[in-house]
Amino acid sequence: MSEQSPDEPTEQPADRGAAVAPGVALLAVCAVGAWLLDPLLPVVDVLLIAVVVGFGVANVFELPTWAERGVETHKVFLGAAIVLMGASLSVDRLVESGALVVSSVVCVSGGTLVGVELCSRRLFGIDDKLASLLAAGSSICGVSAIVAVAGSIRARDEHVVYAATTILLFDAVTLLVYPVVGNLLAIPSDVFGMWAGVSMFSTGPVVAVGFAHSETAGQWATLTKLARNTLIGLVAVGYATYYARRRLGADRDGSSSLGFRQLWDRFPKYVVGFAGLVVLASSGVLTAGHVQSLENAYNWLFLLAFVGLGTEIRIAKLRRAGVAPVLVVLCTFCAVSVISLVVLSALFG
Hints:
The protein is mainly alpha-helical. 77% of the residues lie in helices and 0% in strands. It has 17 helices and no strands. It has helices at residues 13-37, 46-59, 68-71, 74-85, 91-123, 128-141, 143-153, 157-184, 189-199, 203-213, 215-229, 232-247, 260-266, 270-282, 288-312, 315-319, 323-348.
């Protein structure tokens, strides 16, 4: 890592605050706007309204340059909201559902990863590294997994762009489709939440459609998705080892270049905070008033986060996605989505 030049000015906290403040203010105004629109659109969840508002700002009016850095903080707000949501769950509930959640996540994530890899390489002849990026993004946690794996396998920039754009396309579509399917099929809240958590791609859309269905579905969706996100380190190491061995002609030790520090850098930190608050809430330290206040806080943080999520869905970027990556992910996604819904419905039924 290159050292900073002594002559190069270092950005101070105050400067960073001034740089992000306009964008955060824009998120806040849009979040309040979505909240005001909610009573006028009773059939649409407020979080989906927030996504649409953000989408409109970025695509109809174009996101101003002065707001870009602040709007990027929506990922921080999402992580903070997920952490605070831990106050609404208990250790007993996690233990009770743990085996089912973990087994569902492992089976569906593994099936998705293998399915995308085979479909990409055998049916569509897609480049191996692009296939791996598509598989990681589809099976674990969307663009975050793509970026993590790209760094470990030295993927080309254009492959990262193609894979990320394809995943964002499916994020946009599933944000609209899943709530409709859930209502049409009258899917129970726990089933719908787990289904969204194991089959959709990115954390933001999973949480959004979960809470669009119901509070219970939102909690199940978040819990399941968090369990799935923890696989990011394992997948990154697996791909790094595979490509390192192949690049070096199956070297003797087969070691990868990923150490503990690199794994920790790729690990979603909010999972740790979420688990910690679950334990704290289960210990009885938090009163009902505390929990209610935290719920109000994470509801507003979610609004800010989903306005920002909407700004990431750019029509221009979606148009650049090639047909082959989209078809690969579509084939696997449809199969996994249908099978996981049938299995989960049978288990909970």
